[in-house]
Amino acid sequence: MTLGFEPGPLLSTIASAASEGFSEGARIIVFTSAFPDERARRAWLELQRIVNMMDFTKKLGLQLELHEVDLSEFSEAVGRIREKLFPLRDKAVRISITGGMRALGLALFAAFLLIDWVREPKFNVYLEGRGMAVEIPPLFKILAPKLTETQLQILGLMKAGNLYTTSDIAGFLNKDRSTIYKSLQSLRDMGLVEREGNFFKLSKFGSVFSQSTTTPDVEK
Predict the structure, then answer these.
(1) CA distance 188 to 164
(2) What is the pLDDT of residues 107-133, one digit of tens each?
(3) What mean pLDDT comes out for the span 13-25?
(4) Which CA distances in Å does 190 have to 146, 147, 202?
């Protein structure tokens, strides 16, 4: 969930999820902006107080955790949120935009789209002033970028800040140079890699993918 200046929307979402049943050891992950704001801090303290009073909290060992997200660089914000969500891709997950800065909600939505979910999560957006939320259809199925196996291998190989030639990557992956070049061109068109002369490097946005992409085995 995303935290703004009021705990009410988050409590409504928690109550809705509780009515469907929490699993033992369930986690409530809350994202908020790293920009200091006393109102958000008070909202978090109040949320903690009320949740800890709920009967099911101690019974199920419910974990409530807060993660501050630096929104000054959007790609990095998306990467931080995706890093927290990716290990949950095969779990029962409910995602809700319940408040906070618009950029925070967009970063959460972008991170959601950039995960290849094994188990489809529920996603809703709280309607301010209405006391209700609307369900979002599984847009990740049609909006998420479709990357080829070679493109995923390239992103898994490349490290942020390093420069690579087409020949470097072709050698590491034991693939034809022309295949690698075409894949790099496509990744550049998607904004995932950048070109500097004869070299390629991860873009800030591309590094979001590489954080959770398995590095391929390199033949000796």
Answers:
(1) 13
(2) 999 899 888 888 889 999 998 777 778
(3) 83
(4) 11, 10, 12
For 163, counting Cβ atoms within 10 Å of its Cβ (0-12 exposed, 13-18 middle, 19+ buried), the class is middle
Classified as helix, coil or strand, 195 is: strand
Does residue 215 carry a pLDDT above 80?
Answer: no
What is the spatial distance between Cα 168 and Cα 51, in angstroms, rounded to a whole number? 53
Around Cβ 165, how many Cβ atoms within 10 Å? 15
**What global pTM score does this model have?**
0.77
Write the CB contacts of 22 (distance below 8 Å, at least 6 apart in sequence): 56, 60, 62
Please give the sequence-ordered ranges of beta strands (E in DSSP) within the chain, or none if there are none: 27-33, 63-69, 94-97, 122-127, 132-135, 193-196, 199-202
Coil, strand or helix: which one is 51? helix
Nearest to 165 by CA among 186, 147, 180: 180
Count of positions (residues) in the chain = 220
DSSP 160: T
| Rounded distance between C-alpha atoms, residue 124 and residue 121, angstroms | 10
The C-alpha atoms of residue 35 and residue 212 are separated, in whole angstroms, by 26
Dihedrals phi, psi of 127, to nearest 5 degrees: -90, 115
List domains and CATH numbers for the chain.
Answer: 8-143 (3.40.50.11700), 149-210 (1.10.10.10)
Rounded Cα distance, 203 and 197, in Å: 15
